[in-house]
Amino acid sequence: MIERAHLAIIREIARQGSLTAAAEVLCLTQSALSHAMKKLEQQVGAPLWRREGRRLRLTQAGEHLLGVANRLLPQLEQAEDTLRQFARGERGLLRIGMECHPCHEWLLRVVAPYLAQWPDVDVDVKQAFQFGGIGGLFAHEIDLLVTPDPLHRPGLHFEPVFAYELVLAVAHGHRLAGVPHIEPEQLVDEVLISYPVPTDRLDLYTRFLLPAGVRPRRRKLIETTDIMLQMVAGGRGVAALPRWLVDEYANRIAVTPRPIGPQGIVKDIHLGIREADRDTDYFRAFFELARASDAHVDRTATGNA
What's CA 296's distance to the chain center, in Å? Predict the structure, then answer.
């Protein structure tokens, strides 16, 4: 009863808001599109949309069908892409979703040797999954998720591949530059420069400041790492970042890392994939290279992995 064309039509109607626009995107005549959906409505016995002025609004039945379309169409499109790659003699495509800003810098270390080892695999990095990576994996919109905060769900597999220490980056002349480690109350009068993410996803808050009942004087949001550290070096605030990242920038920007708390804060970058893909050879190769990248990072302050 339900054909793929019906799913494509309902998805475009939801996106475009009109039959005319949806027909143009799908390269169909408006009458053919309308006829196909009217026939489906007759078969299921329920209307899929209603008109509100010039726009169409999906009914409850239409919303349900749209949900089916959003789940199934990406899987079918991925399958077609993969089959076309096999037909061209290519192995496949690895689509990577990112759930952390500094992970992008680390990912560059892995992608370069991976592309050299797997010339018949294409890699695409999707930044749109900053906070929706789990849904992206289930919807087959991405194949691999890079995240410091894995959410274990049936059907998914996560592995830690890279351990790092979270440190506080401060300017060379900052009052905290010489302390052995940072205490929560020392940040009460500081401006914290951070990526634009909710505080409940920032370990500096959840594992250090909030348990001590402390908040910084102000929080300033910056999207790019290099600008963030330039602001720190200019005395505009402090920032919590992975030690290896601060060490890399310290060669050209006047910042220094200080341990956060007497024990430090240690995190792991995890890679997540669908269980069904665990044995795919070029996926496993990416995991192995990601783990190997851990051995090339200099850890000097706390001795933690």
Answer: 24
- Residue-by-residue DSSP string for 225-246: HHHHHHHHHTTS-BEEEEHHHH
Neighbour count for residue 32 (Cβ, 10 Å): 13
CA separation, residue 145 to residues 47, 70, 159 (Å) = 38, 19, 11
pTM for the whole structure: 0.66
Q: What is the pLDDT along the chain (305 residues), one digit of tens a residue?
A: 889 999 999 999 999 988 889 999 999 999 999 999 999 999 989 999 888 877 888 999 999 999 999 999 988 987 888 787 777 656 678 999 988 777 887 888 899 999 999 988 889 988 754 556 888 898 888 999 999 888 889 999 999 998 999 999 999 999 999 999 999 999 999 999 998 888 988 999 999 999 999 999 999 999 889 999 999 999 999 999 999 999 989 889 999 999 999 999 999 999 999 999 998 888 999 999 999 886 555 443 333 32
**Three-state DSSP class for residue 182:** strand
Q: What is the CA angle 284-144-90, rounded to 5?
A: 65
The C-alpha atoms of residue 232 and residue 220 are separated, in whole angstroms, by 11
Q: Which residues pair with 272 in a beta bridge?
A: 145, 158
